[in-house]
Amino acid sequence: MPPHCFVIGHPIAHSRSPLIHGEWLRHYRLAGSYEAIDVAPADLPAFIARLRAGEFAGGNVTVPHKEAVMALVDEVSEAGRAVGAVNTLWRDGERIFADNSDVSGFLAHLDATVPGWDDRVGTALVLGAGGAARGIAFGLKSRGVGRILVANRSRGRAEELASSFGAPLTAVDWERRGEVVGEAGLVVNTTALGMQGKPPLELDLSRLRPGTIVDDIVYAPLRTALLAEAERRGGIVVDGLGMLLHQAVPGFGRWFGVTPQVTPALRNLIEADILKA
User: Which sequence positions are flagged as catalytic?
Assistant: First the structure.
């Protein structure tokens, strides 16, 4: 029986995962399906029981289930445990496994855009201290970045993130974010600031050194004000769309048995969908 897979959330209509996985199924001429399913929080245990019973091969999990689903599976990856959230599930027999592929997706996109970045970044500045920041900080630490500064509007949350991961993470005041830009070889915006419908990200880039990598995980708009200003000042910019595409790779490989490629054609397809939204 061809693998049947899903993305669950509440709401879920906005998800572009069916478009991504559907394109890969078409491109590789694979039997199988992938659909978006709206699952209310109260219905999550019953849905996971359907996965355990064999109705699905696996799937993706998005808001608001990325934390709650961890209590319903049998094994969580190191990345998932460190971040405290998962987004990818797969079944092996009657056991359900969970991973956070946002971490590997972030790193894979950075690797593809700026090969060898981890050999030349001594200090990284992470803006934000939420779930996305946890994943990115975990990824940067795993790559051996020697100094990771975390700036968040609530300093307490930045300190909590820094203490939970330990060295080389350090919390810095939000008011100092523009100042420490000059010390960073990599700046990552993990907040929703700058996203369509959200307030702008106010960040003084006057101290940005040419060649500094500036990564914004926001992908709507594709080119945020942060990236435009960073590029104008000689920075190397990395947008958020690639992270979305690369995080989908591990799950597809597990469910359908083929490790897909993130191609320009796939990117163009998703870009067009974002622009028409």
Answer: 66
